[in-house]
Amino acid sequence: ALHQACMSLRAGECDTALAAAVNLILTPMVHVGTAQAGMLSKDGKCHAFDRAANGMVPGEAVAVVVLKRLAQAQADGDPILAVIRGSGINYDGRTNGITAPSGASQASLLKEVYERHSVDVEEIGYIVTHGTGTRLGDPIEVNALAEAFKDYTSRQGFCALTSSKTNFGHTLAASGLVSLIGLVQSLRHEMIPPSLHCHEENDYIDWRASPFYVNKTSRPWSQTADGTPRLGAVSAFGMSG
């Protein structure tokens, strides 16, 4: 929805767009279905990126963002909290199931977005990941990010990763916008929040050769001395990729 809104604004089809998402758990069926599929965390915590990752924790959210072209927002005197540099979507294709997304598809999409919007990955200081807290899904996502980054940089350990799901739970259809709003708030308050419940990093991720580290404590994300804009990113999946 956010990507389509951005495309519509860029094409001049509208002057203002609302991108919204809602996830409310009004019946037991979500818990029943995810429990039967073995997707729920047994201890009620989302251990994203951790060896102890054992499943997701459902959450609820109502998330809305108001979008305008930058020049229009400036002309209207609107409070501008962040600027979207670029976005993109694709589809997973055939996989082994809902809990095993395609790392190749993810890496391909990331590279496409970076190329199309002239993004220098070394300027990305923070990524809010999908990070559901599954032992298999988390490494696929982080390794896909690393695969995309390695074509542009050999730097290690410079980009923070968090998962909003460790703070709010998995808000399903709303989770992408929840992550976006979290990123905007980090820019606004100049602070990267901690990704919770990560004590020993997942063995299926080669962190030593990675551009990334798991941000486990609140970390300042201040304006740069030379005035270079801070750049963050969101990695988010729809149902089954």
Question: How would you sum up this structure, described in words?
Answer:
The chain has about 240 residues and is of the alpha/beta class. The chain is built from seven helices and eight strands; from the N terminus they run H-E-H-E-H-H-E-H-E-H-H-E-E-E-E. It has helices at about 1-10, 30-35, 70-75, 105-115, 135-150, 165-170, 175-190; strands at about 15-25, 60-65, 125-130, 160-165, 190, 210-215, 220, 230-235. It has a four-stranded parallel β-sheet with strand order 6-4-3-8. A two-stranded antiparallel ribbon has the order 1-2. It is globular and about 50 Å long. The mean pLDDT is about 95.
Describe the structure using short key phrases.
alpha/beta; two-stranded antiparallel sheet; 7 helices; globular
Helix proportion of residues, in percent?
25-40%
Rg, Cα atoms, Å: 18 Å
First and last CA, distance: 15 Å
Q: Which oligomerization state do the chains in this entry correspond to?
A: single chain
Gross morphology is globular
Please count the helical segments: 7
Q: Biggest β-sheet, characterized?
A: 4 strands, parallel
> Mean pLDDT across all residues, rounded?
94
Q: What order do the SSEs take from the amino end to the carboxyl end, as H and E?
A: HEHEHHEHEHHEEEE
The order of strands across the largest sheet is 6-4-3-8
Structural class by sheet pairing and helices: alpha/beta
Strand content: 5-15%
Count of β-strands: 8
The residue ranges in which pLDDT falls below 50 over 5 or more consecutive positions are: none
